[in-house]
């Protein structure tokens, strides 16, 4: 065996690639790195860092976010021995509004088959050509097809319309629209930390695919993402996201309530009290309800005594307000009676004690806590089994096949002491002293893998020769690329405009009858 066969972790294999996901949350910034080899995804890094400069999941202060993110990225690079150049990032969850619209392609040809490429093309046009009210301030975060039509048959699912023949192809879409400035601020942060390539995802859909089971998405389920800065709900039926809504209230409001009701304590202490002793439903605390938290003061102010039962009352009041808003959105979606799989709650606040029982009591839906499904191997990465990591894992799942390599190896060169090898005669190439190395820390034990640098020999030097003169070479032009379907015009009809048109037609009919 030759020394050249020793594997160097830092020398990225051509087949392997690294995907980096960045979750910009109101209370934390999470960096996740996965090593991808085909369908094999191995999580190799995950760490959360307290964030600043982010409000309601949107970047508020670019420089504050840049400072925290820069330190977090450098820490990941040093531990893994890589250089992060690209990343996938989640779009803000609030404010996002949805519109219902139909996109129609006509004059396709009477005998034209509807293919999966036609469906994908119509979906891409929904994100690229949908008319916004204010294109300078608004941006499309996502577009989800609800159903399709061939002009004669309606409410056709995607699998059924593929293979049909029709001159018309129509798609019914839910368009999710947010602020363009929020996306621009994300780009500014990434540019300042040295990340040149960024792909953004609408996290409502990516998180759902990482948390929900196929049967839940088919039978009807509401996924509530209970975050720090905002809380959102995404409703699925027949494997399609049917409704999305979010509100600017979350776990940070609970922390502020504890801080305000407890007197002179810091926000950090209030957060730790919430994490350590926070629970809903004070009547079900049993023995914990009799305990009292004694908060010692470091100043002239008297010590603070906070009963755990009173703490639970503070938390329950705010949780009830947030969850009633989510139930209101579920009712407005029109799918309140179709949620056979109930409610799944995920996000940083989802693991609060008695939260599931409380939602069941006020809603009647069965509730489960949404952890990420076991889709990736992640031995040694602490925190990935928590509900706060579901957004990051959803981003990685979405980018697994769409994103290129987000990192490359560090080019550090060190000198290694040359030692006599009794088996040197087995190697055709002489030993060298300069090698590329990388240290990977696993359980605080450095393991250094080395790879012998290439050595150029005279025998391997290529000889440059000229076989033809320039006037003897015939230049063959490149074949023209197939024209894209830009000539196809999509007619967009917003649902509100269709209702107004229908209303006008009804009024005209009534007027004619009166005449």
Key words describing this protein structure:
515 residues; alpha+beta; Nucleotidyltransferase, domain 5; 2 domains; five-stranded mixed β-sheet; 12 helices; 30% helix; 28% strand; disordered N terminus
Task: Report on this structure.
The structure is a single chain. Helix 7 packs across helix 8 and helix 9 (308-333) crosses helix 10. With 515 residues, this protein is α+β, with helices and mostly antiparallel strands. It folds into two domains: 14-213 and 373-409 and 476-515, Nucleotidyltransferase, domain 5, CATH 3.30.420; 251-368, ATPase, nucleotide binding domain (Nucleotidyltransferase, domain 5, 2-Layer Sandwich), CATH 3.30.420. The protein is built from twelve helices and 23 strands. Helix content is 30%, strand content 28%. It starts with 16 loop residues before the first strand and ends with a helix. It is globular.
């Amino acid at each position: 065996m030759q020394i050249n066969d020793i594997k160097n972790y830092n020398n990225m294999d051509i087949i392997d690639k690294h995907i980096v996901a960045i979750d910009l949350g109101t209370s934390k910034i999470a960096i996740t790195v996965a090593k991808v080899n085909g369908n094999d995804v191995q999580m190799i890094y995950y760490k959360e860092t307290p964030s600043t400069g982010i409000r309601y999941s949107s970047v508020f202060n670019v420089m504050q976010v840049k400072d925290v993110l820069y330190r977090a990225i450098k820490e990941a690079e040093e531990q893994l021995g890589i250089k992060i150049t690209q990343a996938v990032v989640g779009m803000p969850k609030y404010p996002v509004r949805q519109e219902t619209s139909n996109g129609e392609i006509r004059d396709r040809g009477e005998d034209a088959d509807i293919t999966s490429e036609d469906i994908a093309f119509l979906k891409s046009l929904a994100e690229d050509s949908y008319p916004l009210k204010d294109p300078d301030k608004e941006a499309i975060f996502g577009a989800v097809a609800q159903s399709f039509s061939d002009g004669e048959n309606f409410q056709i699912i995607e699998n059924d319309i593929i293979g049909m023949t029709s001159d018309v192809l129509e798609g019914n879409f839910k368009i999710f629209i947010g602020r363009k400035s929020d996306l621009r601020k994300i780009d500014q942060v990434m540019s300042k930390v040295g990340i040149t390539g960024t792909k953004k995802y609408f996290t409502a859909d990516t998180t759902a695919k990482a948390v929900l089971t196929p049967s839940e998405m088919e039978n009807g389920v509401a996924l509530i993402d209970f975050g720090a800065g905002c809380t959102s709900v995404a409703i699925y039926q027949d494997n399609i996201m049917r409704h999305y809504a979010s509100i600017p209230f979350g776990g940070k409001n609970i922390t502020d309530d504890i801080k305000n009701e407890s007197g002179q304590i810091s926000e950090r202490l209030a957060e730790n009290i919430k994490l350590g002793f926070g629970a809903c439903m004070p009547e079900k605390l049993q023995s914990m309800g009799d305990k009292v938290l004694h908060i010692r003061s470091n100043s002239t102010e008297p010590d603070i005594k906070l009963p755990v039962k009173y703490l639970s009352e503070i938390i329950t009041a705010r949780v009830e307000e947030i969850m009633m808003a989510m139930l209101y959105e579920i009712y407005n979606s029109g799918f309140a009676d179709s949620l056979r799989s109930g409610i799944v709650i995920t996000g940083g606040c989802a693991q609060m004690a008695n939260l599931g029982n409380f939602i069941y009591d006020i809603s009647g839906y069965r509730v489960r806590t949404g952890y990420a499904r076991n889709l990736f191997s992640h031995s040694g990465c602490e925190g990935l089994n928590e509900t706060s990591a579901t957004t990051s894992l959803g981003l990685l799942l979405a980018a697994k096949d769409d994103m290129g390599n987000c990192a490359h190896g560090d080019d550090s060169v060190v000198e290694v002491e040359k030692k006599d090898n009794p088996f040197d005669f087995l190697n055709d190439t002489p030993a060298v002293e300069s090698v590329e190395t990388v240290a990977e820390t696993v359980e605080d034990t450095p393991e250094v893998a080395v790879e012998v640098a290439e050595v150029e020999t005279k025998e391997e030097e290529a000889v440059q020769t000229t076989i033809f003169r320039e006037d003897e070479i015939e230049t063959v032009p490149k074949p023209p690329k197939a024209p894209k379907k830009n000539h196809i015009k999509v007619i967009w009809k917003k649902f509100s405009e269709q209702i107004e048109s229908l209303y006008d037609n009804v009024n005209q009919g009534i007027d004619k009858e009166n005449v």
